[in-house]
Amino acid sequence: MLINYKLFLKCLLSGVNYCFVSHKIHERKTHNIFIPAEKLYFLSLHIRFSSMFYGCQFVDIFGYEVPHMFNLSKSLDQRSSNIMVHNFHSLRNQDRLLVFTHSRNSLLYSVSELFSAGNWLEREAHEMHGVSFVGKKDIRNLMLQYGDSSSPLKKSFPSIGLREMFYDPIKDIVIQNPVSVQI
């Protein structure tokens, strides 16, 4: 049975100022949607409870930064250039749904209450990309030290460290020293 996701999603997102739906990748098995960040929770709610997307699971979040000179849409905020991509996978139809959102001021709505995998994925995106999620209850760090808000996957993160970090197994602590060049 061939389901016309493109028509369904256009009807669902008819009131959105800007929206782009494409499905011509991998023999119509991957559908791309570009929506504003405010509509992400609404779309995720429909993906979770709609019979058309029965058996759909939340697989991954990844993000990237677009350089300011390459922003294609004037509706995007020029101060922040984070694009977050939510990857949904339909087990019933073996389709992928990639939802692209532009996060203004690095702020998105949490979908962890709808999809249980979202808790871990949002914690990772918060820590690595510096994106905050509204309604997120668990904001512990996964890899970085507590209190560290450096966002290592951002372009503004320095490529040369300011401190060296060593683990001391005897004292069970992480020791930080200024960077020393050894010749």
Provide a descriptive summary of the structure in words:
- With 183 residues, the chain is an alpha/beta fold.
- The protein has a single domain (5-156), classed as NADH:ubiquinone oxidoreductase Nqo5 subunit (Beta Polymerase, domain 2, 2-Layer Sandwich), CATH 3.30.460.
- Helices cover 16% and strands 32% of the residues.
- It has 3 helices and 9 strands, in the order αββαββββαβββ.
- A 5-stranded mixed sheet has the order 1-2-5-4-3. Strands 6-7 form a two-stranded parallel sheet.
- Strand 6 (107-109), helix 3 (118-129) and strand 7 (132-134) form a beta-alpha-beta unit.
Tally the helices: 3
Q: Kindly state the mean pLDDT as a whole number?
A: 77
Total domain units:
1
Strand adjacency order, main sheet: 1-2-5-4-3
- CATH level-1 class: Alpha Beta
What letter string, H or E per element, gives the SSE order?
A: HEEHEEEEHEEE
Radius of gyration: 20 Å
Assign the structural class, choosing from mainly alpha, mainly beta, alpha/beta, alpha+beta, or little secondary structure: alpha/beta
CATH superfamily: NADH:ubiquinone oxidoreductase Nqo5 subunit
Largest sheet: 5 strands, mixed
Tell how many strands the DSSP assignment holds.
9
Low-confidence stretches: none
Indicate the CATH topology.
Beta Polymerase, domain 2
* CATH architecture level-2 label: 2-Layer Sandwich
Q: Indicate the overall shape.
A: elongated
Q: What is the rounded distance between the termini?
A: 66 Å
